[in-house]
Each structure stands twice: as structure tokens, then as C-alpha cells.
């Protein structure tokens, strides 16, 4: 019997050794942890249950039968994060560069099937070179199976990808179909084809960092939602993220008890809006002062900074926050902001996360660059996303809400449940000067007359009361009462039931 037990121990030891000491040392030398070390950090201590550690590939081409490593380049299983079940797979770069074989794909699809059937989030830790080149179409087919399951699980269970090494081919396409992508700075890269292929095809000389590092994907391309300095920070932040998420689209939102009262007022908010309407202020101050303990998990922080998106809690329950940021481009909506906001709103709606919108928006950004870049369709994405969302929607206009942007930002007309404004709100088709100069074009030469017209327009529309008189706002509230009023509205909306007409799916302007 002892011999049998020892044999199991030996086989387990071989599987845990992955690609061997030399490759593990190289992995550490690059500042990266191994697949198993990463899983240990992500999950609650001792909670990981591994599946399929003895699985090997069955390829016999290119002398592959002489290179079989148990586990075949991916570690899969489940465990808990603060007690909640999570499925996880981690690519093992020390085994064939983490590349995906048919057998490796089966390990992942088995896990995806379990996660979907048992309705719990799945996290992929990526550090891999795509399809296993030696396996040809078997590997490609394997990716197809993974992608198909990514799509079926989309909107049912949260799917999170963390890019922790050089990733190419299928190892970037699968993450692209998940809810969030996070990267590790300086050690992770994402590209469909690497720098060598780029050089051959386009004669462009580019480094891996320039082509697909975190610096590129968190800012320019917006492929990644956030970058972290190292593996440890990334994994600990994933634990924090999981705490915000429900396990599935039919599960309750997690509740994390909060000691901060939702009854106290914050007088500092009464002076947040500067006297000069063109002077910016930091909308994040309002977010942090409204949500529990100022705990805000920002998504896409470095991209389209004129709109802020992220997860937080009010009275312990998760909310999604979308806010115009007057500090960046005066909070204007442009194509990037439209896409960023829309994707986040749709994520929240998939998972029944109420949406709080803080509005201070001077309109859509004019100009050829925007129009040629598809502003109409990208702006429409945000409009569409808000309009189709059936989760509780609470909107607060702090200052400007001009033109189409007023309508887009979860207005009453798009089924906003509770629409509040601060007394500093201005709701109009456009700013007073622009409005007077269009309506009274004939008087443009007469500076005094125009100034009087601007004042008139201001007096009529530079306030929230016209909208309040029509019931487009439910109330004009004191800034210091914001947290209390929003918390009460969320309580009131807990039982909200609203369904869109039956359809196969909608046709959001992509
Ligand atoms: C088999 C692979 C591999 C692969 C890497 N390796 N990628 N083995 N199939 N796809 C192996 C290497 O042979 C090497 O083995 C080890 O992994 C480490 O790779 P290195 O190249 O030494 O590492 P590095 O210099 O860090 O470069 C990492 C890399 C590069 C950028 C990922 O390896 C690379 O470009 N690989 C190929 C990427 C690619 O084109 N994949 C196919 C994509 S097509 P040893 O034995 O020396 O340790 C695809 C289709 C899916 O995925 C469908 C999409 C729609």
C-alpha cells in the first residue's frame, strides 16, 4: 500500500514541477510567478482543488511523443475567494510556453462547463503563446471550443482574464471575449502576432512593449481595464474585484457590511461646485464621498478619462458608478467615452448591479476627428446601453447637462428610476452663450444686446427648476445629503421589476 501512495506522490510531484527547474528559474528571473504560485495567491489559503493534473497531450508529430509533461501547460481547478466559489485556470509558461494543445483545451473547456453549470465566476491567468504549433488544427479547434464557451457564459457568469506574460493568438482572443482584462506592467504583452511577424509582414520595427504592453492597452487601445505593477498586486486586486461581483446573473449581489453610516451628511459637498461654471472640479471627490468607505474599484482608469466608471458599494451592496469628469476635456462625451461607458453599463445590467450616474457634461465633442471616427455610433452605444438597462438607475446632475448628453446620461426619458439634481444644475440644449448667439444671430454685432440675451437664457435654463417643474427630475437635493438620498433610493428600488420586450437579442450599434 505504502508503495502505491508513494507512486501517487511521485506522479503529483512530477506534475507540480511543470517544465522543470531551469524554466521555473527563468520564469522567476523575469519577475513572474509560476502558475501554481499565482493560484495560491489568488485563492483563500488551502482552498485550491486541482483537476486533471495527469492529463498529457497525445500528439506524435514533430517527436512530441518524447516530450510529455503531466498537466500539459495549464493548471485548472476551483477554490474560494473570501469563501465564495471561483473556478480558475492558469497557463504554465514553463510547459511549451503555456501553448494550447487539444488536451490542454479540454482541461479548460471542462472547467468552463463546470463554472457555467454551477454558476460561479471563472478567472483565467494567461501567460502563453497561443495555439500549440506542433498540433496544427487540433489546437485551433481547441481554441474554437474555448471561444464558444466564452460566448455562452457571457452575461451569465463573470469571466475575468489576467494577462501575466507574453500572450499571442488564442490567448488574447479568449480574454477579449471576457468581461475584464487586467495586465501586469512590464512583464505582460498582448498581441495577435508578435514583433517578429510584424517585422516580416509590415517591415515595422516595434518592441513587445510598444506593440502590446500594459502601457498601450490600458491607454490607447483600451483592450485592458487596468495595469498592475507585479503579479502579487494583480492577484490581490482580483480578490478585491471578486468581492464586488455576484456569482452569476441570477445570484444576489454580495453584501459586505459597512460601518460608515448612510445617514450622515457631508457639508464639504455644498462647496464642491466652483462659482465659475467653466472651472473644473474633481468628480471623483463626489464618488468617494458617496460610496461606502471611499472604496472605489475603477475600471479603465487610464483610458477616456473624461468619463469615470467603476464598482463601489452603498450600504454594503455593490453599485456601478458612471460619472462625467469635468477635470478632463470638461467631461465632454467623445467616441472613447461612449464606448467605455456603454460597455460598463451593459456589464452592470447583465449582472443586476444598480447604476449610479453623476452628470456634469457639456455635450458631445465637435470636430472632424470625432465625426470621422464614428462619434455618432459610439455615442449611440452609450445611449443604447442606458436605454436598454433594466437595473435600478439613479442619476444625479451636479452641474451641466446639455443637449443630447443630458438625454444619454440615464435621464428620466431613458427610464431613469430616480433623477436628482443639485441646485447648481443647468439643463439646457447648450451653454447660454452658444444658445444666445444662435437664436439671436442678427444681433451678434451688438455686444451689449447679446450679453443681455445670454443673461436671459441663463436665467431661464441655468438651473434645475424647469426640468423639475416638468417632473423630469424627481427632486432638487442638497449636495450634503447625496449619500443619504442615493442610499434611500437604492433601498426603495430593491424590488424593481422591469423587462424589455422579448427578442433574440438586440442590435446595439457596434
Ligand atoms: C508551441 C511554443 C509556442 C507555441 C512558445 N512556445 N509558443 N510551443 N507552440 N505557440 C515554446 C517555445 O518553443 C519555447 O520552448 C517556450 O515556449 C518559450 O518560448 P520563447 O519563444 O522562448 O519565449 P519568449 O521569447 O518569451 O516569447 C514568447 C512568445 C513567443 C512571444 C509567446 O514564444 C511566440 O511568439 N510564440 C508563438 C506565438 C504564436 O504565433 N502562436 C500561434 C498563434 S495562432 P522551450 O522548449 O525553448 O522552452 C493561434 C490561433 C488561435 O493562437 C485562433 C485565434 C483566432
Please summarize what this structure is.
By secondary structure, this protein is an alpha/beta fold. It is 38% helix and 17% strand.
- Computed over alpha carbons, the radius of gyration is 26 Å
| CATH third-level topology of the largest domain | 2-enoyl-CoA Hydratase, Chain A, domain 1
Bound molecules: hexanoyl-coenzyme A
| CATH secondary-structure class of the largest domain | Alpha Beta
Shape field: elongated
Fourth-tier CATH superfamily name of the largest domain: 2-enoyl-CoA Hydratase, Chain A, domain 1
Unreliable sequence segments: none
What count of domains describes the coordinates?
A: 3
Task: Explain what this protein looks like in three dimensions.
- The protein is an alpha/beta fold.
- It folds into three domains: 2-244, 2-enoyl-CoA Hydratase, Chain A, domain 1; 267-425 and 463-492, Alpha-Beta Complex (2-enoyl-CoA Hydratase, Chain A, domain 1); 431-462, no CATH class.
- The chain contains 19 helices and 17 strands.
- The chain has helices at 2-16, 21-29, 35-42, 102-118, 137-153, 170-176, 195-202, 208-212, 214-217, 231-244, 283-290, 335-350, 368-372, 375-388, 403-408, 432-439, 447-461, 465-469, 482-492, and strands at residues 49-51, 74-81, 84-91, 122-126, 159-163, 166-168, 180-184, 189-191, 226-228, 297-299, 307-314, 317-324, 355-361, 393-402, 418-421, 426-428, 475-476.
- Helix 12 (335-350) links the parallel strand 12 and strand 13.
- It starts with a helix and ends in an 18-residue tail after the last helix.
- The relative contact order is 0.07.
- Bound molecules: hexanoyl-coenzyme A.
- Hexanoyl-coenzyme A binds at residues 23, 96-97, 99, 129-133, 140, 143, 166, 168-170, 173, 194.
Amino acid at each position: 500500500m505504502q508503495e502505491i501512495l508513494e507512486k501517487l506522490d511521485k506522479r503529483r510531484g512530477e506534475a507540480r514541477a511543470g517544465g522543470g527547474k531551469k524554466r521555473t528559474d527563468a520564469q522567476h528571473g523575469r519577475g513572474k510567478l509560476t502558475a501554481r504560485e499565482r493560484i495560491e495567491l489568488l485563492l483563500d489559503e488551502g482552498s485550491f482543488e486541482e483537476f486533471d493534473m495527469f492529463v498529457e497531450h497525445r500528439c506524435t508529430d514533430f517527436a512530441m511523443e518524447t516530450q510529455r509533461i503531466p498537466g500539459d501547460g495549464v493548471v485548472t481547478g476551483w477554490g474560494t475567494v473570501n469563501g465564495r466559489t471561483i473556478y480558475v485556470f492558469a497557463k504554465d509558461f514553463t510547459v511549451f510556453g503555456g501553448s494550447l494543445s487539444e488536451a490542454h483545451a479540454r482541461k479548460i473547456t471542462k472547467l468552463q462547463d463546470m463554472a457555467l453549470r454551477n454558476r460561479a465566476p471563472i478567472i483565467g491567468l494567461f501567460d502563453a503563446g497561443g495555439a500549440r504549433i506542433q498540433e496544427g488544427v487540433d489546437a485551433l479547434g481547441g481554441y474554437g471550443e474555448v471561444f464558444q464557451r466564452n460566448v455562452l457564459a457571457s452575461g451569465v457568469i463573470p469571466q475575468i482574464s489576467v494577462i501575466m506574460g507574453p500572450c499571442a493568438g488564442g490567448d488574447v482572443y479568449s480574454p477579449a471575449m471576457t468581461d475584464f482584462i487586467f495586465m501586469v506592467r512590464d512583464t505582460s504583452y498582448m498581441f495577435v502576432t508578435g514583433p517578429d511577424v510584424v517585422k516580416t509582414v509590415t517591415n515595422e520595427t516595434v518592441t513587445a512593449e510598444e506593440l502590446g504592453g500594459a502601457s498601450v492597452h490600458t491607454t490607447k487601445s483600451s483592450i485592458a481595464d487596468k495595469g498592475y505593477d507585479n503579479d502579487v498586486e494583480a492577484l490581490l486586486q482580483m480578490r478585491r474585484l471578486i468581492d464586488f461581483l455576484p456569482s452569476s446573473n441570477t445570484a444576489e449581489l454580495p453584501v459586505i457590511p459597512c460601518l460608515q453610516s448612510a445617514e450622515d451628511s457631508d457639508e464639504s459637498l455644498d462647496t464642491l461646485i466652483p462659482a465659475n461654471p467653466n472651472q473644473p472640479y474633481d468628480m471623483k471627490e463626489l464618488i468617494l464621498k458617496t460610496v461606502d468607505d471611499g472604496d472605489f474599484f475603477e475600471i479603465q482608469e487610464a483610458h477616456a478619462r473624461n468619463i469615470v466608471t467603476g464598482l463601489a458599494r452603498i450600504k454594503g451592496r455593490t453599485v456601478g458608478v458612471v460619472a462625467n469628469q469635468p477635470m478632463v476635456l470638461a467631461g465632454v462625451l467623445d467616441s472613447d467615452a461612449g464606448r467605455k461607458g456603454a460597455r460598463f453599463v451593459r456589464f452592470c445590467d447583465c449582472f443586476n448591479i444598480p447604476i449610479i450616474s453623476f452628470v456634469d457634461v457639456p455635450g458631445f465633442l465637435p470636430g472632424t476627428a470625432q465625426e470621422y471616427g464614428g462619434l455618432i455610433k459610439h455615442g449611440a452605444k452609450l445611449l443604447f446601453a442606458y436605454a436598454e438597462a433594466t437595473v435600478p438607475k439613479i442619476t444625479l446632475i451636479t452641474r451641466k447637462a446639455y443637449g443630447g448628453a443630458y438625454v444619454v446620461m440615464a435621464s428620466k426619458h431613458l427610464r431613469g428610476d430616480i433623477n436628482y439634481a443639485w441646485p447648481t444644475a443647468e439643463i439646457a440644449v447648450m451653454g447660454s452663450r452658444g444658445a444666445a448667439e444662435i437664436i439671436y444671430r442678427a444681433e451678434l454685432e451688438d455686444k451689449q444686446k447679446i450679453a443681455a440675451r445670454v443673461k436671459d437664457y441663463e436665467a431661464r435654463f441655468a438651473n434645475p427648476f424647469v426640468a423639475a417643474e416638468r417632473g423630469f427630475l424627481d427632486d432638487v437635493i442638497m449636495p450634503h445629503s447625496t449619500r443619504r438620498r442615493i442610499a434611500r433610493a437604492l433601498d426603495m428600488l430593491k424590488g424593481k421589476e422591469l423587462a424589455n420586450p422579448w427578442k433574440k437579442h438586440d442590435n446595439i450599434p457596434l
